[in-house]
Amino acid sequence: MKTPDLDELVTIGKIVKTRGLHGEVKVFPLTDIPDRFECLATVRVRRVQGQDVMVAIETVNYYKGFVYLQFRERNSVEAVQDLIGGWLQVDRASVPKLPEDVYYHFEVIGSSVYTEDARRLGTVVDILETGSHDIYVVQEDDREYLIPAIAEVVKQIDREKRMITIHPLEGLLDL
């Protein structure tokens, strides 16, 4: 079996600390589909201090916005200590498909942004979640643009080409 390239991996959570004495870990989920952990048999942990490791998930629990995982054959605090601070990653091919015009953050971040007249604005470096709609943070050299992810502005997102075309509303690019 081929090991996935870093570009083929998607980060879905970060291990923040242990819980209890039996090796359970507290995970801050970085996914809009938190129950996806229940469907995983294994997950890759990108460790802070070394090489990635694959771990088998034994149990999954949820509490106050966090995910609590118990890994098979890691049933003590000492056995999971090397995983603390690690990023949980899955193969991009295992990510559930979304409806048309709905995108994962990893599909948008890193995309080049152009106006309809082919003027390059920069690259999406972050996404701000405001509640009503996302805002794409686009940077190019010393310029930064905040692009609202609304239909009136974002005209096309090409997942394969990693390119976004926008129609800037009056004044949007003047700041």
Describe the structure in brief.
The protein has helices at residues 77-80, 105-108, and strands at 9-19, 24-29, 42-46, 53-63, 66-71, 87-91, 112-115, 120-129, 134-140, 143-148, 154-158, 163-166. It has 175 residues and is mostly beta strands.
CATH class of the largest domain: Mainly Beta
**Number of distinct beta strands:** 12
Strand order, largest beta sheet: 1-2-5-4-3-6
Shape: elongated
Look at the helices and sheets and give the structural class: mainly beta
Overall pLDDT confidence: 89
**Main beta sheet:** 6 strands, antiparallel, barrel
The H/E string reads EEEEEHEHEEEEEE
Percent helix:
under 10%
Tell me the span between the first and last alpha carbons: 50 Å
Tell me which oligomeric state these chains represent.
single chain
The fourth-level CATH homologous superfamily of the largest domain is RimM
Task: Tell me what portion of residues adopts beta-strand conformation.
Answer: over 45%
Fold-level CATH name of the largest domain: Elongation Factor Tu (Ef-tu), domain 3
Total number of helices: 2
Low-confidence stretches: 1-6
CATH architecture of the largest domain: Beta Barrel
Indicate how many domains the architecture comprises: 2
Radius of gyration, Cα only, in angstroms? 19 Å
Walk me through what this model shows.
Helix content is 5%, strand content 46%. It has 2 domains: 6-94, Elongation Factor Tu (Ef-tu), domain 3; 105-166, SH3 type barrels (Roll). With 175 residues, it is mainly beta. The protein has helices at 77-80, 105-108, and strands at residues 9-19, 24-29, 42-46, 53-63, 66-71, 87-91, 112-115, 120-129, 134-140, 143-148, 154-158, 163-166. Strands 1-2-5-4-3-6 form a 6-stranded antiparallel β-barrel. Strands 10-9-8-7-12-11 form a 6-stranded mixed β-sheet, with no helix packed on it. It is elongated. The protein contains 2 helices and 12 strands, in the order βββββαβαββββββ.
